[in-house]
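residues and backbone:
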Amino acid sequence: MGRESFFTVWRLAAALALLATGLGCQGDTPPEPEPTRWNVVVLLVDTLRADRLSFYGYERPTAPRLGNLARSGVVFRNTRSQAGCTYPSVNSILTSRWPQHFVNRQQLYGMAIPKDTPSLAGILAGQGYATAAVSASVVVRAVPSRVNRQGGFGQGFQSFDESCLKRSARCVNSRAYKLLDRLPEPFFLYLHYLEPHTPYRPPDDHPRRFALGSPDKEWVRRGEPRNLTKRLYNGDTTHSYDDADVRFFSDMYDEEIAFMDESLAMLMQRLRRKRLLERTIVVLLSDHGEEMLDNGHWGHCRDLAYETLLKTPLVLWVPGGPTGERSSLALNVDLVPTLLDLLGLPHDPAAFAGKSLRPVLEEDRPVHDMSFALQGVSRVASDGRYKWWLDLGGGPPRLYDLRIGEMSSATAFERRPVTRLRAELLAWLEREEGGRQGENLRRARENTEQLKALGYL
């Protein structure tokens, strides 16, 4: 729509309509547009790789329903997560803070969002929104769990339902339907789905299309790769695996996405039947992806920061808003400022690590030219073409040409972009970690060992 954006026109029309009804202020000057009291629904799908979705180019029809729905919204084709593990990725998503904000304070708060850190739920609650969440995650909890000993994700939520812990999307949807029947508008609803997180095992009555047959190994049939990761990382030779086992796990991961596709389509159908879609912003995103021997590793967390973990999907539906695909870079930390901008709510953009994606929505006009991420001892900067990977543990830095992949470091490159990547990453580290890099390294290793001891890794 050009520089006079859809959202500006929408708000001006609302103000003029207010005048026409005699409810506006007296005089010739139209009143300032009121905040747009749209509802907000955030659908976070844990461990979902963008490149395993059919509408992101995957050859298998893993998400045909979401693909159809995506055509009525905006698909961001170049979205990146800021961490390759649920903690601190979700913390960053819900607060628009870099992951270091949480790593630096982990000793005091653990995996929790610190009480003095404003979150999306708290901001919207302060603006009169009803706020509710349903989470199947062992990490994203309001009260302590075996993995997250502090809880701490419930601040700002008037209702935080944890009854679907480690259960399927059907449970999350069921709880969400009940909330949709009673939540007053405007509302903010956060739904955290566990598929396709391990174990890769959709419900038994889900009709399989990709994972056919029955492997000999019982742990492979269950979709539980822990014996594989024990052998890979701990040298445990008790169990062996072969290419067929790896393919079955990968196929089961796709099956879980197909099940999620059905589940999210049902939720969107419920929103449509209740006539909520016409006044609700809906966001689909993921905290991180999953490595499945694409680069010789498995799973997520640890020190893994490959594209299989950091390239995640993002789809945004705005009532009556733009549609289509956007190629400009988007970051998960952009969620909070983007929503506040679209809703017209007061906020200080300088208070957030992310930026509003509204220019990308309207004109595919970039707001970022660089992305940053951390995971364990790994620190990463990428401009979309090249990726600079720094190991705080003392390993050699790695440069990847993402057109080729990450199996081997790039050798032929232009010196100028690489020099820039290195400078940008070091500046980010100095700004966000300063002299705490050694302490963060120690905490990263402690956190990995804790997750191993709890059976999470």
About this structure: The longest helix spans residues 243-273. Residues 112 and 152 are 4 Å apart (CA to CA).
